[in-house]
Write a structure and sequence with these properties.
- The structure is a single chain.
- The chain is of the alpha/beta class and about 350 residues long.
- The chain has 13 helices and 11 strands.
- The chain has helices at about 10-20, 35-40, 65-75, 90-100, 145-155, 165-190, 195-200, 205-210, 215-225, 230-250, 255-280, 305-315, 345-355; strands at about 5, 25-30, 55-60, 80-85, 105-110, 135, 160-165, 295-300, 320-325, 335-340, 360.
- The chain is globular, with a radius of gyration of 24 Å.
- InterPro entries: 6-PGluconate_DH-like_C_sf (IPR008927), ACT-like_dom_sf (IPR045865), ACT_dom (IPR002912), NAD(P)-bd_dom_sf (IPR036291), PDH_C (IPR046825), PDH_N (IPR046826), Preph/Arog_dehydrog (IPR050812), Prephen_DH (IPR003099).
Length: about 350
């Protein structure tokens, strides 16, 4: 691939453009919003100039509802040898493109499973996709050269290609991406009118659950509008679970001992099913999740403290597998949880204590 056209210079489009430009591909940038093109170009993602002729790959990074029309327009104008979109919904745009008379041979739907709470070109980074799954949904009509160009793009972005059927992809993201977004927003919405005293008690649990609730509402409305059926199916099942959970909690509040036992059984069953589901979430490098041990350390809110504790762990010859930070409300300190292999936890604890760190059991 020597030339590319990125249509849509938001977070995903600009991040891909940065990765391509960094590998020497001449990238042309296009967007309805000229200011976003200028911003992306200033970041080094490519040029504002239109290409002189057909490019090797047109990357369509627009909302799902605009994908088919944008791809069809690019094909009619002969802008590229291949068209690839990166929208988070695949089945609908493919069918709409067929209705518009688009060419299925030179088109391939894709979806990089990466993103941030922030949007726009200023949030873009060339390493956004590194190590992340990038779904490709070729059909029997897809030209081999188009698939090869898509695989080259995925390799340049250092992502991991995953080939799926378009509709199977949409059902999958309804479960692992779209529904979590709505559930996070539902929990965060409960905080809107909550008493200030309650809000001040927020800890790491509520921060974890509501992190993605900070995402752009307009963008997510467009995404959910393109995949409403599968998301509604998942939420319907969640609603059934919620109804059962409410009944179990009401039973726990009953004066009848047998009802309380039934309620406790229902809650325990839910929590165990949650344990089982959580264990299926891939861990480090996509492998099965490991049972890491946590070493919790008190850390001050001063420049260089994170670097110092990581350096001390490195001097002890211990690899940090994961990390979490819990900030103390109203204090210039917090707790950092260093996740390590269980066998390494005692050595890390001893090494950090020797270097003056305060370990919390």
């Amino acid at each position: 691939m020597r030339t590319a056209l990125v249509i849509g210079t938001g977070l995903i489009g600009t991040s891909a453009a940065l990765a391509l430009a960094g590998r020497g591909v001449r990238v042309h940038l296009s967007d309805r919003d000229a200011s976003r093109v200028r911003t992306a170009a200033a970041l080094g993602a490519g040029t504002e100039d239109a290409p002189d002729g057909p490019v090797d790959l047109a990357l369509v990074a627009v909302p799902p509802g605009r994908v088919a029309a944008t791809v069809a327009d690019a094909q009619r104008r002969g802008l590229a040898r291949a068209c690839l979109d990166v929208a988070s919904v695949k089945g609908g745009p493919r069918r709409e493109l067929a209705e518009l008379g688009g060419d299925p041979v030179s088109y391939l739907g894709s979806h990089p499973m990466a993103g941030r709470e922030r949007s726009g070109p200023m949030a873009a980074t060339a390493d956004l996709f590194e190590g992340r799954p990038w779904v490709l949904t070729p059909t029997a009509a897809t030209d081999t050269e188009v698939l090869n160009l898509a695989l080259e793009l995925v390799a340049v972005c250092r992502a991991v290609p995953v080939v799926m059927d378009a509709d199977a992809h949409d059902r999958a993201v309804a479960l692992v991406s779209h529904t979590p977004q709505l559930l996070s927003s539902l929990v965060a919405a409960r905080l809107t009118d909550a008493d200030e005293t309650a809000v001040r008690l927020c800890g790491q649990g509520i921060r974890d659950v509501t992190r993605i609730a900070a995402s752009d509402p307009g963008m997510w409305t467009e995404i959910l509008s393109a995949n409403p059926g599968p998301v509604a199916e998942v939420l319907s099942a969640v609603a059934d679970d919620l109804a059962e959970t409410v009944r179990a909690l009401r039973a726990l509040d009953s004066a009848d001992e047998e009802k309380r036992r039934d309620g406790a059984t229902g809650i325990t069953d839910l929590l165990r099913r949650g344990n089982a589901g959580r264990e299926r979430v891939p861990g480090k490098h996509g492998a099965a999740p490991a049972a890491y041990e946590s070493v919790t350390v008190l850390i001050g809110d001063q420049p260089g403290e994170l670097a110092r504790i990581f350096a001390d762990a490195g001097r002890a010859g211990i690899n940090i597998e994961d990390v979490r930070i819990e900030h103390a409300t109203g204090q210039q300190a917090g707790l950092i949880q260093l996740m390590v292999e269980p066998a390494a936890a005692p050595d890390l604890t001893a090494a950090l204590r020797e270097r003056g760190w305060s370990i919390r059991q």
